[in-house]
Design goal:
Largest sheet: 2 strands, antiparallel
Radius of gyration: 24 Å
CATH class of one domain: Mainly Alpha
CATH architecture of one domain: Orthogonal Bundle
Number of strands: 2
Structural class: mainly alpha
Shape: flat
Strand order of the largest sheet: 1-2
Distance between the termini: 38 Å
Helix content: over 70%
Order of helices and strands: HEEHHHHHHHHHHH
């Protein structure tokens, strides 16, 4: 191999080297450190001690609120990702059509996603207040209700409100991901389908869905990661009260680490969450790629 061919072979790796170094320093190295800490004794002040095996994991799993938190996390991710994907897809279909004010509608849609999650959660906290909330005021003035309604009468309802706010702020992300996929579809495909007598549902399931599947795959995987790790909405609205009944894994491990000073179990929970995310993302991507291979 002469010098010129060797240089051409090494050039791509030289271009990739800065990215590899950044990923190694800011992603891989912290993950390794966290894994190491999860198997070590950690004092309340954060001092790392010796190796203690799986004790932190056993302590984390045996916590009284662990089962409730895991169940909440499951329903939180499933409802927010599932419903935001469905509603975002429908909104993307509407925004892809030609109508007056389409640009304004697209601009309005981006607001919930572009605004800080803490602000969004605080606004919704104010809206559903029992004493002076906007929702009760509007319904009373319209004559729909005669007395103010306590929209947060139980922790189950509060958790539903948390999921509702999560769906509300996630819809724009899905809608714009799908919209980018819709705009890349050649209109001649729809015109040919119409000539062949295809109806709305035929075009949807045989043209639109297969061609926007890559965009949906990306949005779904990113959504699972973002929603699973979402902290501001739950913490701002309820802080997990009462007694961790509305906590998700992220808010719970935060409270466990910084309020209860049990850093070992908290780090073990973070590792458990990381592994769960890797498994979910891997299964989803393998399923999608398998479908694409079978169709091709």
């Amino acid at each position: 191999m002469n010098a010129g061919s060797r240089k051409n072979t090494l050039t791509p790796y030289l271009w990739l080297l800065p990215s590899i170094l950044l990923i190694g320093i800011f992603v891989v190295f912290p993950i390794v450190i966290v894994f190491r800490m999860s198997f070590s004794e950690i004092s309340k002040s954060g001092v790392i001690g010796g190796f203690i095996g799986l004790k932190n994991y056993k302590d984390a799993v045996s916590l009284p609120a662990f089962g409730t938190v895991m169940k909440n996390t499951f329903w939180w991710v499933l409802s927010v990702v599932g419903l935001s994907t469905l509603l975002g897809f429908i909104i993307a279909l509407v925004l892809n059509q030609e109508f007056a004010g389409r640009k304004i509608a697209r601009s309005i849609l981006i607001f919930p996603w572009a605004t800080s999650l803490v602000i969004q959660a605080s606004v919704w906290n104010y809206i559903i207040k029992y004493e002076y909330g906007s929702l009760n005021n509007v319904l009373l003035n319209l004559g729909i209700i005669k007395n103010a309604v306590n929209w947060r009468s139980s922790y189950q309802i509060e958790f539903i409100w948390e999921c509702g706010v999560g769906i509300f702020v996630t819809i724009p992300f899905v809608a714009f991901c799908v919209l980018s996929g819709l705009q890349s579809i050649d209109e001649s495909l729809y015109e040919s389908a119409i000539v062949d007598g295809a109806g709305f549902w035929d075009k949807l399931f045989k043209i639109t869905l297969p061609l926007v599947r890559p965009a949906l795959s990306v949005s779904t995987v990113l959504n699972i990661i973002y929603v699973f790790n979402s902290f501001p909405i739950v913490y701002t609205m309820t802080k997990g009260a009462p007694a961790n009944k509305t906590d998700t894994m992220i808010t719970y491990l935060y409270m466990l680490s910084f309020y209860d000073r049990r850093k070992g179990p908290a780090i073990a929970l973070s590792v458990i969450g990381f592994v769960i995310l890797c498994i979910c993302a891997g299964i989803y991507m393998m399923t999608v790629m398998r479908k694409e291979d079978s169709e091709s």
